[in-house]
Amino acid sequence: MSPSTRAASRHAARERGPGSGSTGTRTRVRPHALLPDRHTWTDIGFTLVLAAVVLSSFGTSFTGSTYLVVGMLGAVLAVVVTHLTRAAGWPIVSAVVICLLLFFLLGGPLCLRSLGDTSFLPGASTLGRVADQAVFGWKDLLTTLPPIDGEGPLLVLPWMAGMLAGLVGLALAGLPVRRAWLAAALPVIGMTVVLSGAIVLGVRRPQSLVVQGAVFAALSLAWLALRARRASASVQGGSTSWLRGAGAMAMLALAAGVALPASGVIAGDEDRRAVARNWVEPPFDIGRYPSPLAGFRKYVDLKGRTDPTNVYDKTLLDVDGVPAGTLVRFAAMDRYDGMVWGATDNALPGPADDSFQRVSSTIDNPVGGEEVDVTITLGEGWSGVWLPTVGALRSMSFETADARAKAEVFRYNLATSTAVVPTGLQPGDRYTFTAVEPDDELTEETVGSAEPTVLSPAAAFIQQPTEKWTEGAGTDPMARVLAAAEHLRSEGKYSDGVGRTERVYVAGHSSWRLSDEFVNAPQIVGNDEQYAATMALIANEIGVPARVVLGAVVPEGGRVTGKEVAAWVELRAADGSWRTLPTESFTPTTPPADQVPETNTPMSGTVIPPPNPIPPPSDAGEQSDADLKERRATRKKSEQDEEDGLIPDVPGWFGVVLTYVGVPLLVVALLLGAVVGIKAWRRHRRRSADSASARFVGAWRELVDHARDLGQVVPLGPSVTRREQSAGIVSGQAGALARRADSFVFGPRTPEVASATTYWESVDAERRAMSREVGRWQRVRAAVSLRSLRPGGRGQAAAAAPSATDTAADGAADAAAGGQADGAGEPRHTPGRAARLRGLADWRSRGTPD
Question: Can you give the pTM of this predicted structure?
Answer without folding.
Answer: 0.46
